Amino acid sequence: MLTKRIIPCLDVKDGRVVKGIQFKNLRDAGDPPELAQFYDEQNADELVFLDITASSDKRRILIDVVKRTADRVFIPFTVGGGIRSIDDIRQVLCAGADKVAINTAAIKNPEIIKEAAEKFGSQCIVCAIDAKRVRADEECKNKIVVETSEGKFWWEVYIYGGRTPTGIDAIKWACTVEKLGAGEILLTSIDYDGTKNGYDIPLTREVCRRTRIPVIASGGAGTLEHIYQVLTDGEADAALAASIFHYGTYSISDVKRYLHDRGVPVRL
Amino acid sequence: MCVIDYGVGNLRSITKGLEKAGATVKLTTKIEDILNAEAIVLPGVGAFKDAVKKMEPLKEVLLKEVEDGKPILGICLGLQILFEESFEGGRCEGLALIKGRVIRLPSEVKVPHIGWNTIKIKKKNPLLREVNDGAYVYFVHSYYATPDNEEVIVATTKYGVEFPSVICDGNIFATQFHPEKSGEVGLKILRNFVAIVKGSI
């Protein structure tokens, strides 16, 4: 039986994991390769590495860190942040990434997904979508409006690391990237990210129901219950989390055991 | 051993997996490397058509070497290429080392099949030595192989259909999953392949 996946995320800035400083079980928590190996040994199902500064002058540092990190893991490894061209994708894959996450570049030029999928295969093209709730009390033309316990909303895609709104409907965009050939969607709720209040369940569920490719939910994990909710009510295929793992609130096996006890298929 | 370079995607994962398993690895597209290698690995990246095209100049030598008993390990796409034909991106002929065809996973399930799934071991094989029935391995694929001769099926996996996830026919070994991405279980399988090549199991 196909399992649900638990994916720690390394947010990397200037070659260091930025959320990992207080992580108890490691001396040097700021070193991406070291943390990556730690999560691999902890039985994480995959790893995501996001270069959150991603300015082009840091490109060589990124590739070098990606390489050193990839060398330490024997589980699937996704790399994102600042990927703008087919050449960037090739470089990252050659450095040892199994998949690349594309976000801003896909909005600017959707054809990059198509081209990349044809060249490298859909399986290694992850489309990252950062979405933010917009109140939909009045009629919203051409937007997918979902009724939640907090009222009616649609979701807007943001780019440049959550700084720039695009006016694009995130749920519709998810359907578009599937058609273009993306193999997976990494869906992050900007509203919930870092809050530890739980994932955006209505958003995740809506995207899962409207697409036929795996969806990785991200943003908001604070408790074991949150992860359980997004994999069941939210219908996500995988749950990504950063702070709860880096700060040592829970280990990967705490999460998996909790899910297993509640009947969610996981790789123990 | 030599890993055939189709010219796309990530070959570092398989290279370092095999190295960790104790092999000396050379990435290659050269005939003499195939002749000199103790074993051949067909990695699992890229698309069927492109990979077959890239292998065209090596085909004759590779088939002869495998026929003469050189061990070969096909991974994911590398498993599929061993078959007679695939329907990925229109019909295309493979190496025909194993009789059968490669078809798309059923549309009732999400395709590609991405993630950790279990293998059901059908028969004993040195490639799966010390690997438990029900072990989890990592899959990423949209197509699967259907061998004419069911005897070559060593293990199967269920996803929409029950498909062969490990195949063996004499000196030909293949996995539909990625052992290099399957943590400890995967490394064990690679170590087993290295041991088979060295004649120690």
What would your notes on this structure say?
The complex is a heterodimer of chains A (268) and B (201). Chain A has a single domain (5-257), classed as TIM Barrel (Alpha-Beta Barrel). Chain A has helices at residues 32-41, 59-70, 86-94, 104-108, 111-120, 170-180, 201-210, 224-232, 243-246, 252-261; strands at 5-13, 16-17, 47-51, 77-80, 99-102, 125-135, 146-148, 151-159, 164-169, 184-189, 215-218, 238-241. Helices cover 34% and strands 25% of the residues of chain A. Chain A is built from ten helices and twelve strands. With 268 residues, chain A is α/β, with parallel strands linked by helices. In chain A, α1 (32-41) packs parallel to α2 and α6 (170-180) packs parallel to α7 (201-210). Chain A is globular, with a radius of gyration of 17 Å. Chain B is α/β, with parallel strands linked by helices. Chain B has one domain: Class I glutamine amidotransferase (GATase) domain (Rossmann fold, 3-Layer(aba) Sandwich). Chain B is built from five helices and 14 strands. Chain B has helices spanning 12-20, 31-36, 48-67, 77-80, 183-197; strands spanning 2-4, 26-28, 40-42, 72-75, 83-86, 92-93, 98-104, 113-118, 120-121, 136-141, 143-147, 153-159, 161-169, 172-175. In chain B, the strands form three sheets. Chain B has an eight-stranded mixed sheet with strand order 2-1-3-4-14-13-12-9. In chain B, strands 6-5-7-11 form a four-stranded mixed sheet, covered by helices on one side. In chain B, α1 links the parallel β1 (2-4) and β2. The longest helix of chain B is centred in the N-terminal third of the chain and has 20 residues, at 48-67. The mean pLDDT of chain B is 95. The interface between A and B is medium-sized, with 34 and 35 residues.
